[in-house]
Every structure is written in C-alpha cells, then in structure tokens.
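[User] I have long wanted to understand how a fold can be written as tokens. Those tokens are not coordinates but codes from a learned vocabulary of shapes. Could you go through the record with me and say what the backbone is doing? Thank you; the sequence and its tokens follow:
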Amino acid sequence: MGRIVVTEFVSLDGVMEDPGGAEDFQHGGWSFQTNRGAEGDKFKLDEALDADALLLGRVTYDGFADAWPSREGDFADKFNSMPKYVVSSTLEQPEWSNSTVLKGDVVEEVSTLRQQRAGDIVVHGSAQLVQTLLQHDLVDELRLMVFPVVLGTGKHLFGPTSDAKRLRLADSKTVGDGVAILIYQPAGEEPTPSNAG
C-alpha cells in the first residue's frame, strides 16, 4: 500500500499561496526571499527522487505541467518521468507525460490509488485537495517547510475540519536562514522513516 505524503512551503502564518511567484499574488515568490541552504535543497531533491508518484489538484498540476517539461536536471527528470495523477472534473487530455485524470469521488479515487501503488504518492501545493485529504484522514505524512515570514494575506494551507486532527511530530530540523522542516504523522501510528535526517 502506498503512502500519501503532503509536502508544502508555508509562511509562519500558514499561507501556502504562490511560493514560487508563478501566480498573480501580491507576495508571489516569497519562498525565494529566504535561503533554505544546501541542506534544504537536498531535502527537496531527496523527496522528489524517493517519490513513487505525484498527486495534484488541477491548478497546481497546470502550473507544474507548464513549468517542468522544459527543465533539465535530476529533479526535473524525476518529475517529468514519474506517474502523475490529477484530480479534475474538467481536464480531458492531460499533456504532461504519464498523467492520469481522477474524475470520480476524490476520497474513493485516492483511497483506490493508495491501495494500488507502493511507495510515496506526493502531493505538492493543491490546497483544496490537501484539505479534503486531511478531512478524510488520508494523509500519512505532512511535510512542512516553514519560512520565517508573516505574509498577512493569501490562501492558507489548513481549512475547517469536522473534528480535530491530532498529529505527532516525527522529525524536525532547521536549514538555511531559519527555514524549519517539520514532519508530522497521524498521532497513534508507528513512526516510519523519513528523509529529514
């Protein structure tokens, strides 16, 4: 059985919108304003290389599909070659290589995907999808790269849930200029090895 791993860049006040600056957000590109250092870069590369597949919402998928096919290097090669699943009710013909559209009920589709695949199925960005996965206890690991900035506005990672979701801090470290890597797993589960070091 696969694991659903959510990985996010977030500000100190929980904003995850447009860390790379590709959208029309007033603070777009905020993650580039703090150096995450060689250790932070290695964490993201190892995460990509260790992933078995990507699971993305439509907006994040479109952004990635526009950006990654033209790039080169180990990170880009892995992103471009591995299986990708996009949750969308409107996308008909995904053009990014090895992409599959999940059109049905999100919870059922992701539960089935989790049963069918081994290894880490990694979710980047995709706020609405992540909130749905958290609500239905489908997140096996939550990796936050928390940047020391308060943005004050923007789309937040966490939304309302029907009940409290207890998590356990499985690993943590600080990289670069004060960027915290925090790895959480559902409380009560046995720890699983992570690549945070």
Summary: The chain has five helices and eight strands. The first helix runs from residue 37 to 50. The two ends are 24 Å apart (CA to CA). The mean pLDDT is 94.
